[in-house]
Please model this.
Amino acid sequence: MYKFFDREKLKYCYQCGRCSSGCDINRIDRSFQPHRLLHLIGMGAFDKVLKSDSLWKCTTCFTCSERCPQGIRVTEILWIARTIAVKAGRIPELLVTQKDILLRTGRLIPMDNKKREKAGLAAIQEESSVVAEIFEIMEGEK
Model:
């Protein structure tokens, strides 16, 4: 199930912590430390990583990958772990809610038509199926 991880490459990670020290999220939330997630993955503790809230805190800015002196693609590894988590049904409730809102309205942030009206802009429909239609088309092309 976890064949996507090349654990050989993770052996090059010597836990210097540069990925974590350069991370903007780590500055706000010290519990997010990419080097620790890599260590767990390298040890084969996938279930612990997939159950971790930290996995979902990455903003994919790629700073960790750029700072890695060993050239480990940290961001890509975290994305793969997220993909595996999704396939295993381990998705945070907030993301499920956001997905539902996106598919229903076509946006994540609600429109304030009163503000739009004051700015002289036309009102926007609350419901939109465009994003849902795009996802349906993409699913059909697999």
